[in-house]
């Protein structure tokens, strides 16, 4: 009888050790998933706060408007946060080509692109061929596409 109780006790202790190991593993995995969800929600919240819309008219002249062979579009800050009116704020791609020399200025003046404000985005596009073109703006993860004809 005593031998049977000892075997049962050993099996019981082994079961407790296995259960504790499984519980520890599950707890650490739940913590990792929770951290990942928190990080993703912060990223999404940042993207929601930074949102922009191109307000230029595709039917209006956006290329060579000032005679300097440049592209000029107007973009409104529709997000919940203010953004700096600096070239690094907006990534510009014209027909799939990244534009490095971009000038951004707030319409009406100022250095900060407040919610509801419009900025003028200008960059040189010398020798842009006649036809249809695709302009892509990326503002803090928000992507906007603008199609126009020269």
Automatic annotation (TrEMBL):
Superkingdom classification of source: Archaea
**Single GO molecular-function term?**
structural molecule activity
Q: Name one Pfam family in it.
A: Flagellin_arch-type
List this protein's GO terms for biological process: archaeal or bacterial-type flagellum-dependent cell motility
User: Could you tell me the keywords of this UniProt record?
Assistant: Cell projection, Cilium, Flagellum
Name under which the protein is recorded: Flagellar protein G
